[in-house]
Amino acid sequence: MGRKADAPHNVRTRRARTDIREALLKSALVEFGANGFDGASTRAIARRVEAHQPQINYHFESKEALWAASVDYLFGLLGEALDGALPADPAQASTSHLAAGFADGIRRFVRFAAEHPELNQIMVHEATAASNRLTWITEAHIRPGFDAIGLAWRTLRDAGWVAPIDSDILYYLLVGAASQPYVTAAEVRLLAGRDPRDPEWIDSHAEALVAILLPGLSRNE
Amino acid sequence: MGRKADAPHNVRTRRARTDIREALLKSALVEFGANGFDGASTRAIARRVEAHQPQINYHFESKEALWAASVDYLFGLLGEALDGALPADPAQASTSHLAAGFADGIRRFVRFAAEHPELNQIMVHEATAASNRLTWITEAHIRPGFDAIGLAWRTLRDAGWVAPIDSDILYYLLVGAASQPYVTAAEVRLLAGRDPRDPEWIDSHAEALVAILLPGLSRNE
DNA sequence: TACCGTTATTATCACTCGATATCAAGAGGG
DNA sequence: CCCTCTTGATATCGAGTGATAATAACGGTA
């Protein structure tokens, strides 16, 4: 055999800088999502993409910098997935248009949570205790969406379209209900014997969430 | 100073076996909830209760045995908190009584999630990947509640009391929506500037969840 | 072909981890 | 008091961690 067991490379191959950087980012998301910041090892992140552990400190400044870069990358994907769902200024939109946009945003967020469970897994890992990482991710990435959802919800609520629920509480109801089966996908497979990545599950899940939060806007009514 | 910095004991004190076991169990829950199994260190668990790390291997067989014992303890508390909320045989109860019991169970579960965020934190940490620990906790502790909730929900749904949502999906909507603000309490404080352990938050949260899942049974209607 | 900047690879550092062996000190019985 | 069983306390082991220094080999350019 031409290589040692588990050795990333015996025959030296060289990759373009952007290739290996992106490969390391994606690998880091999987590991950070599954194990948290401290639990993820840089050796495991590198091994997934057939790289060596010191390459992380070469292409990124540190494990912490890799974490931040991978989180930036992930929220970039989220931004693309949600782009245009909520109107920039809810006050100027018609309420029915706003409600339809809110329902559409829910469906898109559920799909994203299913395709990228790492996002909510990382949030859960970071958000159990105050830290510099939590402060950064909250202010840099979470707050814009939190504010937009809160504003839209309060507009709909005051117009009588939805239940009289505090917008802070609504945000956590929504995020928790949308992400739980994908964050704990391994449990779903054991408990329900179903794969939550199945498009049928994702679709039913999204419609259920729309049905309970925006009764009357469900696709099936 | 009479003791080294961070040293649990300089002057030797002896505690009853049951006392230190229970102290270690509670400390373990906090650490396992915040950091997961691998992330929690036995030294930190011991230090919280002014004990030494080897005492864990003395009073419990291993870190894994301590984890299992602390999870057993926690689900014991959950069982007490939920005792009697759902009728043993939903088919024999009147549907309106079943619905009231379901709403009551939601309120109790939200309160428990707020008082013991470790439970859902531990589940999230364990449920991201298949493992012996996940299989054990699922079969020993999760499945009974999952089955009871599913049966009650399907009864209510087929009687037209609630939205036509698959019971597997409903379970994860419920668990996620009920636990999220307490699992990520540090984020709530940063983002909303509110403490989710506040009784007012807990009460509003529980009522909101009842309102969207069991419209018409909300305490405020 | 010779060179040089860039990247891959190896080796190693100080540190933390869970577990265990060893010894010291407590408590209760006679 | 002394004996014995139990528990506290210390030291240490091998394994794994992130980071870094040192070296080797690639790829383009002159």
Describe the SSE topology.
The structure is a homodimer of 221-residue chains.
Chain A: H1 17-39, H2 42-48, H3 54-59, H4 63-82, H5 95-115, H6 117-126, H7 132-158, H8 167-183, H9 185-191, H10 199-213
Chain B binds a DNA duplex (30 and 30 nucleotides) through α1 and α3.
CATH class of the largest domain in chain A: Mainly Alpha
Helix content of chain A: 55-70%
- Structural class of the helices, strands and pairings of chain A? mainly alpha
Under the CATH scheme, the architecture of the largest domain in chain A is Orthogonal Bundle
Task: Walk me through the structure.
2 copies of one chain form a homodimer. Chain A is globular, with a radius of gyration of 20 Å. The N terminus of chain A is likely disordered. Chain A has 10 helices and no strands. Helix content of chain A is 69%, strand content 0%. Chain A is mainly α and 221 residues long. At the A-B interface, helix 1, helix 6, helix 7, helix 8 and helix 9 of A face helix 1, helix 6, helix 7, helix 8 and helix 9 of B. Chain B binds a DNA duplex (30 and 30 nucleotides) through helix 1 and helix 3.
